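Service request form, structural biology core

Requester: graduate student, group of Dr. S.
Request type: structure prediction, single chain
Budget code: on file
Notes: please return the result as structure tokens.

Sequence provided:
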Amino acid sequence: MALTREYGRSTFSQCRLGVVAFEGRVTAQLNCTYAAFDGRGQSIPPLAAREELPAVDSKRLIDLVQRAALYHGEHIGTDGTPVDGVFETIKLTTTKRTVVLVTSGNPSFTRGSVRRELLSELTAMEERLRRKKTR
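Core staff response, request fulfilled:
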């Protein structure tokens, strides 16, 4: 699974949270590309961080993904990058199928639902990894 955000004008041009579940364990990796340069005009190295979730958190996240019914439609949202906003997507790949859903401006991710809960969990994971950065 991947949560990807593309930004209009922001500190980052893009952030990608990759989440891999294997044999009941979940590993998360965050990579963010800076939109600006340092004081010498050089590119700033990407922000990168990684963590393995404890078993109880792994089980909860896997359950959320299954209950969110990501393969059941409601995949359309909006792209806010032309007006300095965000374009956010979730991509889920299993052994046989892949689905990509736009989460930004998508009502199925904003109203009180399992999808909203999943997005909140992924966003919290991203924030935790940003604080843990290994750049």
